[in-house]
Structure formats: C-alpha cells, structure tokens
Amino acid sequence: MVAEYMEKNPQVMSYITLRELSSSQEVTEITVLKTCQSLGFDGFNELKYEFRKNSIAKRKTDVLDEKNFYTESIPEYESEDERKFLKEVGESEVQMTAQFWEEVNLTDIFRAAGMLLSKKKIYICGRGISYLLAQCMVAYLYGCDCYASVVNTELNEEVYGVLSELNEDAVMVAVSFPDYYFMTLKLAEYAKNNHTMILAITDDPKAEVAELADLTLAAPSMTRAFLNTLSTPMFLVNLLVSAVKIRKKDKKNPQKERKINDLLES
C-alpha cells in the first residue's frame, strides 16, 4: 500500500515527511522504513532524494521541514567524486536559469509591474525561503521609490496586523515556494474575498496559490544539492523590479506610456 502511494504521488514524495507519510497511510514509521529498504534504499531520505532528482526536470516541488531547515543530506554514492558532483550541481543551476530566461513571458513581467504601481498599498507575503525573497523584493522596490511592506506569514501578529489593510486599494504579492506554507494560502484567500489584487510568485504555475491570483509569475527552485535554490527566483525578482523602474520612468512620458499599454493589450 505504501509503495503504491509512492508510485502514484511522485510530486508529494519530494517533500513529504516520514511522519506525514505514515499518518496519511495509517501505518507506522517502521513500516515506511521497511518499504524503503524493500525498494533498495538505505532510508527514507535517500528515497526522497531520488524522487527529487526525478522531479527536477519536470519543475516539481521541493523539501523543507517544519522548522524551515533543509533536512536531506546527499547520499554517499552521489559524492564519491566531489568535483564531478559539484560541477553537475552548478551546471544544473545554469541550465535551469537559462531555460527560465528562454521561456519567460516579458509581457507578464510588465503586467505584474503595472499591478504594483496601480495600487496605494503593496504587501509582500511569505514564509521561510519565500520570506527571504519577499524581503529582498521590498528592499529593491524601495530603491526605486516604490514602497511595500513585508509580511512573515509564520508570525500570527503580522498576519492579523495586515488583515484590515487587504482591500481593493491594495495588492498582495503571495510568494509561495515549497513547502507552500498553508498560512500564505489562507491569507491569499482572505485577500481575494476582500477584492484585493493578488500577484503570485511561485515555482509552478499549477501551484494552489496560482488559482487565487490575478497573475502568476513562476520560476523553478529545485536542484539536487539545494531544495530551494534562490538563483532563478531571484532572477525573476530582479526582472520584476527592473520592469517597475522602467514603468515608473515611462509614466513621466504619457505618449510612451500609451504605446506600452497598447503593446501589452495587443
């Protein structure tokens, strides 16, 4: 039963914990570990590592534990040739970022910039790695005279403090990378119900937060060595803030602003 669940849910197996898997399948953790051994793995983390490797090319999810710390170590068989493995890790990040740049929709980037500039209040929300990205985005926006507030969705006082501000005069940027923290999603649901414009920044356009968003920007975040690498998501943030700078400058030129709007609407 456990092996069948693993086979049918490869994406979930990239980030689920041993405790969560045993609970969902109503078996003991020992049963899960025995299943791993029967499949030829030394332990649960090694099994998850292989699921994650298989998911990288498909741009699937990542692994963080409930304390925001990376929990998987690299299996010994992967690090026998350290230089070779490190080169493969670096090459995979370069390829991931290059593919993102090849596929990125610049029109959507400018639309997202327009969303940020169209509202009086900007709230950028996230938790863990997503919160780090949110902090960087707030700092970068401040550098181009676009003022935003950051909300750590893991802190109840910050979540409750922003509720009264989420209305039609605001835009919420929901930064949601694995493990797709539930409170970020709940806050986005609340914002949507209060007619707040929502921009989602995540790793997968099919992520749950994207269903609530007016616009979604996606950047892959998984590598074999780091479960949520910041390289490509930061590239996305850099592009978005650059677009904000461009749009702010163009607003001083009404004729150019009209041309850009015509281009985006075409």
From TrEMBL:
Transcription found in the keyword field: yes
Gene source species: Sellimonas intestinalis
Superkingdom classification of source: Bacteria
GO molecular function, one term: DNA-binding transcription factor activity
Family annotation (PROSITE patterns): HTH_RPIR, SIS
Alphabetized UniProt keyword annotations: DNA-binding, Transcription, Transcription regulation
Pfam families recorded: HTH_6 (PF01418), SIS (PF01380)
CDD domains per the UniProt record, alphabetical: SIS_RpiR (cd05013)
PANTHER family in the record: GLUCOKINASE (PTHR30514)
Gene Ontology terms: biological process: carbohydrate derivative metabolic process
UniProt-listed InterPro entries: Homeodomain-like_sf, HTH_RpiR, RpiR-like, RpiR-like_SIS, SIS_dom, SIS_dom_sf, WH-like_DNA-bd_sf
Residue ranges annotated for the HTH rpiR-type domain, each copy included: 1-58
Domain SIS: 112-252
Name of the molecule in the record: MurR/RpiR family transcriptional regulator
